[in-house]
UniProtKB/TrEMBL annotation:
Protein name in UniProt: Aminopeptidase
Database matches in SUPFAM superfamilies: Metalloproteases ('zincins'), catalytic domain
Keywords assigned: Aminopeptidase, Hydrolase, Protease, Signal
Annotated GO biological process: peptide catabolic process
Residue segments, region Disordered: 759-789
Source organism of the structure: Rugamonas aquatica
Signal peptide: 1-18
Length: 789
């Protein structure tokens, strides 16, 4: 609809609708975030008094392949860098999650009775794997067997609380002091594909060998820090962990024919590698493509016999927060060095023959690509190795080493190896993701037990950036705004800022939504330059330190110079969705006061009105004026649209009073449109408006989210164009995760879909027919004995 307005009233403001109480979407987060202090500043940087604890480990462990068990002894040297005096220490016993009466096992719930008794689809029933896991968990002798806890040869008093152990100190540990103590322990290794988990062994029935992925395997110091005190939430499976940095000296005794992949650097290559393997490893350091250290032929030969001797592999790792390893005689091993700026890393992959040819082609290449890309958005990779291991764990990360699952599928009849597109990109994607975890949280040491999104969400976001740098049209699962829409529409949600163990829709909540939010922040709200600078500053500030959500939020605002409290509040603290609707458009023209133009415009508007049905039919009626033309007078020639001399005089007087700039404004001939928007979803966002003009020209207007500041539910925006506007589209590139695009355009666009037609299936439940259906492989013989008839 087009209207005219007087030139003296060319002033528009955002409309405010006060029918409901005002909901300030832009109120500051100060009421939610912790108060800044000398440990953590208001800018989001570590404060002058920032501190963190340290734990150094010396570990000696033996893998008993036959029993599938580990026995170990460790010494922990704990450094109290806090301002607090500690009377006890807490140690994590993650293997206790496999005890028969563990919280994780006892709290398991089952599908509904309906799903058990009368499944509508196979998914409604109960899977073989699920039932096997439940029954095996009732029999498996899992958890630590703690032999001794001592210091200086004297036993220490300790109390085990499920997956946590409190060690009572013989004397208070004052600030600046250290305390060394020993733990002797053992545990049985779980079969990962049966009992699940983040580590375990995989049995290969064809060659009777096992592959061990060993993690969360030694009693580890719980974190103690300024925000939480002791982080001793029980390990239930979802919330991972946060640990203290330290140096590790680890010796691993394994069967002599095993190959070991591990956190850290190998210290005794001459003892455990052949001269040929050492030579290949040296060549890999400067190679331009992966060099095979243990070939598939060599690995297959090793599979055929089992050594009764043992060999000890010695590794050291500096300034890491954890330590993991893998061991098997099945391993093929390839490596390639990567050196750039201050990064000097050996990228290595370990995999059984079942992983080839995909692993030999992609794994080490994906490691190098990950480090190259992640360095751009954070800091130079500081460690000497980066490892990807193929085994039973689908995807799990530890310092310098990750466990990744995808493999080709082997046809049971022909033995041919094939793989789907999903498997190929699943392999590349999971390696990027898990190797990327070296940055988040292995170096930027966030508290995963409390906030899963701080490592998974941030890492998934950078994973998306790295995937897009792999090839054009890389099929990333997470990151693009359009991919999160179904989740944002769903009802079964909790805010991102929910403790790790209480998350619903875990993958969508902790991985996809934060990653998507950061992508929106980068592309739509801040722009790449501001975002990338701030994001890298966060990584630089908190490298080898422990950030909290407040530190991330504050750093992003501090380094970008942008108040983003509205975004953090809406995207991270609520389940509001983006749904912005264009409700209506009114067209206005500026009145020139020129009677020749204005009355002509009014006449055109009148002529454009529809002719009533009565008027149409009355045209055919005989008219008296036609028979008596002498009845015509002035008003038969003139009407309300006739320009009079008075009109002209009035216009001349008005123009004479105008300043030159006011006269110019009247002559511009701009088209003015008042557009009504409503915020249906609750989450405020910038307006991204695609304007299409009568000539076919299109352009984008980007209006910041602050347009909603004074009226978060409904606003009216003025759009000025040089020629008539024929259409307007909000969020034309689907960059804000708007959950209903049907209300994003004016005029409304037709939504296209498909409707399936189905033939009526009669007599679906025919027991007689089903009973007499021939058995497969039995020819025409009935399922019952025909001789009995």
């Amino acid at each position: 609809m087009r209207k005219t307005i007087g030139f003296v009233a060319l002033c528009f403001t955002v409309s405010a609708y006060a029918a409901e109480p005002f909901d300030d979407k832009f109120r500051q987060l100060d009421e939610v975030l912790p108060t800044a202090n000398s440990y953590r500043t208001a800018s989001g940087a570590p404060g002058a008094a920032y501190w963190q604890q340290r734990a150094d480990y010396t570990i000696r462990a033996t893998l008993d392949e036959a029993k599938r068990a580990i026995t170990g002894s460790e010494q922990i040297n704990y450094h109290n860098n806090s301002p607090d005096t500690l009377s006890y220490l807490w140690v994590q016993l993650d293997q206790n999650i496999y005890k028969k009466d563990s919280d994780a096992r006892m709290m398991l719930t089952q599908p509904s009775r309906e799903a058990w008794a009368k499944p509508r689809t196979p998914e409604d029933g109960y899977k073989f794997e699920g039932m096997r896991s439940i029954l095996a968990g009732r029999e498996f002798d899992g958890g630590y067997k703690i032999k001794t806890v001592s210091a200086g040869g004297q036993p220490l008093k300790y109390t085990i609380n499920r997956t946590m152990m409190r060690i009572d100190l013989p004397a208070p540990l004052k600030p600046g002091q250290s305390f060394a103590f020993n733990i002797d322990w053992s545990y049985n290794i779980n079969e990962q594909q049966v009992l699940g988990g983040r580590a375990g062994y995989e049995h290969f029935e064809d060659d009777k060998n096992d592959l061990f992925e060993i993690a969360q395997w030694y009693p580890r110091m719980a974190a103690y820090y300024d925000v939480m005190g002791w982080q001793h939430k029980q390990f239930l499976g979802s919330g991972e962990f946060t640990l203290e940095f330290g140096d590790y000296d680890v010796q691993l005794t394994v069967p002599a024919d095993h190959v070991v992949a591990s956190t850290g650097e190998l210290q005794n290559a001459n003892d455990v590698l052949t001269a040929t393997q050492r030579d290949r490893l040296a060549k890999a350091r400067t190679a331009t493509a992966p060099v095979v250290i243990v070939t598939q032929e060599e690995a297959e030969k090793a599979e055929k016999s089992v050594s009764t001797a043992s060999k000890t592999w010695h590794f050291k790792a500096a300034n890491v927060r954890d330590f993991a390893w893998a061991s098997s005689r099945k391993f093929i091993w390839d490596a390639q060095g990567f050196k750039k700026d201050s990064t000097n890393v050996m990228a290595m992959s370990y995999y059984p023959k079942e992983g080839n040819p995909l692993w030999g082609k992609y794994s080490t290449q994906a490691i190098i690509h990950t480090i190259d890309q992640y360095n751009k958005y954070s800091f130079d990779y500081p460690y000497p190795t980066a490892i990807s291991v193929n085994g039973p764990v689908g995807g799990m990360e530890y310092p310098m080493i990750s466990f990744n699952g995808p493999r080709p599928a082997k046809d049971k009849k022909t033995g041919a190896l094939t793989w789907s597109q999903q498997t190929k990109y699943g392999l590349i994607g999971v390696i990027i993701h898990e190797v990327g975890h070296n940055y988040y949280p292995m170096i930027i040491n966030s508290d995963e037990r409390q906030w899963t999104w701080m490592d998974e969400g941030l890492n998934t976001f950078v994973q998306y950036l790295a995937e897009q740098a792999w090839e054009d049209n890389y099929p990333s699962r997470r990151g693009e705004a359009r991919n999160i829409v179904d989740y944002m529409r769903s009802q079964n949600q909790v805010p991102i800022m929910t403790n790790s163990e209480s998350l619903l829709q875990f993958g969508n909540n902790a991985y996809a939504k934060p990653a998507t939010g950061l992508n929106i922040l980068r592309e739509t709200i801040l722009g790449r330059d501001l975002f990338d600078y701030a994001f890298k500053e966060y990584a630089r500030r908190w490298k080898f330190k422990r950030p909290t959500p407040a530190d991330f939020f504050r750093t992003m605002e501090d380094a970008s110079g942008t108040d983003l409290d509205w975004f953090w509040r809406g995207w991270f603290y609520t389940t509001d969705a983006v749904d912005i609707s264009i409700d209506g458009i009114s067209e206005y023209g500026v009145s020139t006061k020129d009677p020749e133009k204005e009355k002509a415009w009014k006449k055109a508007q009148k002529d454009a009105e529809p002719i009533s049905i009565s008027e149409q039919r009355n045209k055919a009626l005989p008219k008296r004026l036609s028979e008596h033309p002498e009845l015509k007078d002035f008003y038969n020639e003139h009407d309300e649209f006739t320009v009079t001399n008075k009109d002209r005089n009035t216009y001349a007087e008005a123009i004479e009073k105008l300043e030159p700039w006011e006269k110019k404004l009247l002559d511009q001939g701009k088209h003015l449109y008042l557009v009504d928007f409503s915020n249906v979803g609750g989450m405020v966002m910038p307006l991204i408006l695609e304007v299409e003009l009568k000539s076919g020209k299109k352009y984008i207007e980007r209006i910041p989210a602050e347009v909603w500041r004074y009226s978060p539910k409904k606003i009216t925006k003025l759009i000025v164009t040089d020629e008539p506007m024929v259409s307007l589209t909000q969020d034309p590139y689907w960059e804000t995760a708007d959950i209903d695009t049907s209300n994003n355009a004016w005029p409304r666009k037709v939504t296209q879909s498909r409707m399936e037609l189905f033939k009526t299936e009669r007599d679906r439940n025919n027991l007689m027919r089903d009973y007499n259906t021939p058995l497969k492989g039995k020819g025409d013989k009935s399922s019952k004995d025909s001789s009995s008839e």
